[in-house]
Write a structure and sequence with these properties.
It contains nine helices and 13 strands. The protein is α/β, with parallel strands linked by helices. Strand 9 and strand 10 form a beta hairpin.
């Protein structure tokens, strides 16, 4: 059984990472900021234009510790990983399946089935836990519609039709998303999904959460020898990790969406944690990203060994915690 290790998030810009023995050392302007043993790290995620020594990158590559570089706003820059895991036979099989659209549809419908089922579960939990604060009939109607779409998805064998059903299910689910925001309604609202750029506070948080989830999916796929860039629902496109996007469909709701809702409803973030640029794009502040990652690190350290650790409060920060790696956030 694989031991779940830590992800180190480095949020302070212009920090330099280098190797000292079996430790990663963080420095800025020749000042030592921290020293962390590498033997209990599974990944390092650095925000801003952080540098890393060749010795550290080589050490991490040999020991399957990925290093990911993102901009301060969470846009992917680069990843440093070791040799490919698994075997060529596995990847050749993946490529053959991806080339056949009919077989790809059969694989892809499992991802979509999981996504719709999880979204339906979220709505049903809302009707049970917050019956006095939401429109029960609206949630029940959407849940029934998702059930009908699930029936169509399970027998669908065409990619275009599958994408159509997935889009319809997503639109129905999104109709209830704003109703699940129970606090800070003036500053946090959801009317539609907006990306590149995010046009409101909620979408800015969702985009950040999806970026981190996609990075986890890439690491998971590469660790078992699959090609993260060859997908089934998401077709080949240069620079796009299609299989990682396929895999994260099932987890968008129960991991990213619910975590963002918990931050809003627990008032872990507020309107002061965001600012709007001239082009209308809404950006999280540096302090907001640190708080976001700190809460995420706490969520990932659930003691329950099952796939999800269910806690009393449905929209609390620690509720329904996917069993990914535990994490820690480095900040000065």
């Amino acid at each position: 059984m694989k031991k779940l290790l830590n992800t180190l998030f480095v949020t302070q810009p212009d920090t330099y990472l280098h190797l000292d023995g079996d430790n990663v050392v963080l420095t800025k302007n020749k000042e030592k900021l921290g020293r962390i043993p590498l033997h209990n790290l599974e990944a390092i995620v650095a925000f801003g234009y952080t540098g890393a020594s060749p010795a550290l990158m080589g050490y991490c590559a040999e020991r399957n510790v990925s290093i990911t570089f993102l901009t301060m706003h969470g846009r992917f820059l680069a990843r440093v990983i070791g040799e490919s895991r698994g075997n060529v036979t596995l990847r050749k099989k993946q490529y053959r399946i991806s080339d056949e659209e009919k077989i790809s549809a059969i694989v892809a419908r499992n991802f979509i089935t999981g996504k719709i089922y999880n979204n339906k579960w979220i709505l049903e939990r809302m009707t049970r836990d917050y019956a006095l604060r939401i429109n029960i009939q609206k949630f029940k109607n959407v849940s029934r519609q998702l059930t009908e779409i699930l029936k169509e998805v399970r027998k669908c064998s065409d990619l275009e039709s599958l994408r159509g059903w997935e889009g319809q299910a997503a639109n129905n689910y999104n109709r209830c998303f704003d109703d699940m925001i129970l606090q800070q309604k003036e500053d946090f609202y959801f009317h539609a999904r907006s990306r590149r750029p995010a046009l409101d506070n909620v979408n800015a948080m969702l985009s950040f959460a999806y970026t981190l989830l996609a990075n986890d999916m890439k690491s998971a796929l590469e660790s078992v020898g699959l090609d993260a860039y060859v997908g089934f629902l998401h077709r080949d496109r240069p620079g796009r990790a299609s299989l990682a996007l396929d895999l994260m469909e099932e987890l968008r709701g129960v991991f990213a969406d619910k975590f963002v809702l918990s931050l809003i409803n627990k008032k872990a973030l507020n309107k002061k944690d965001f600012y709007k640029k001239e082009n209308g794009a809404v950006i999280m502040t540096e302090d907001a990203r640190r708080k976001f990652l700190s809460c995420l690190a706490k969520q990932k350290t659930g003691k329950n060994n099952t796939s999800f650790s269910r806690r009393k409060n449905f929209l609390g920060v620690s509720t329904v915690c996917p069993g990914f790696t535990a994490g820690q956030v480095f900040e000065k």
